[in-house]
Amino acid sequence: MSNPELDEMLRFQGSEALTMGVELELQILSRHDYNLTRGATDLLAQLARQDHPGNVVPEITEGMIELNSSVHHDYSSLVAELETLRDHMVAAGDRLHLALAGGGTHPFQRWHEQRIYPKERYLALSEMYGYLAKQFTVFGQHIHIACRDGDEAVRMTRLVSRYVPHFIALSASSPYYQGVDTAFDSARLSAVNAFPLSGTMPPVYSWREFCDYFTRMVEYGVVQSMKDFYWDIRPKPNYGTIEVRVCDTPLAPRQAARLAAFAQALVAWLRQETRRAPHPDLGMAYSYNRFQACRFGLSAQFIDVATRSQRALHEDLIDTLTRLMPVAADLHSEAAISELLGQVLRMDNDAAWLRSVAGRECSLSHVMLRQVERWAGREVSLQ
Question: How many CB atoms sit inside 10 A of residue 97's CB?
């Protein structure tokens, strides 16, 4: 028997292929000590009085807030919107004596002090997951890239999964957590790993197979919507996209736009490679490659199952970004890909910047101040 509500959830919306958008989870901070503070309600009320691009919504705890871009064709328009929305949010925060920052984790907040935002879904998650819900006070970037149909979304979810370590290493901005240097470049993903529906999409190879899987999971009572899957990459049928979910929130909006441009160019290139199929051994190395990127960032090792060899991740990134340059030129994002390539050649990501700042500052509160300045575009030289 047909279920109209389920059928609607699984209807893959038509969208213009290769358009993109981002979601960014941000830290709301006290100007007193730069710890997380319960400012989401006041900040949302302040922003509701303004005419600004994109959208701003609450997140699971009250020291978080999420900005959503609109749909974009190219890198430059995405940068412009993110920076404009950033400026509106920073100005609203200034009026409330609140600060905003990027970064995948707050370096010294205590998870048990956080408060769940009073929204029905978040309260239900807190009831289901207990303390894990408050520990989920971590901050990520989600990237949406439009696909032509559900079959392409399933195929791209599988193909892009080879590059999950590349996105982790480029975006890593969470070396500090609970007051210590974790020795990871991205500690944030360890919080995501605790959820039972994290990881990767199951072995389905068409939209019909995916719909059958999802329907069974609903019937078993495991999930109610696509949001219940915390996979690294998931199809998003109501947007007509795939959603890459492994990135830490960068320290500046422009880096977020670069990462989106990377995802867009990667999907465009993979679409051209019509005979390319996910390697059958990809899953054997997936967890190892993902861990290496979280732990070591751009210095990670990477197993290429296609060649049955291990190499430095930054070498594979250099090859990948170089290969994408002609596609990026067609998408008017060659500047973004070139800038990412320069970062890899310098072995430079946000985690490295944070550790460098921490080596010069007297406390993690002062590190957070520098993150606030970097997000706001008010960064001063520390030389």
Answer: 12
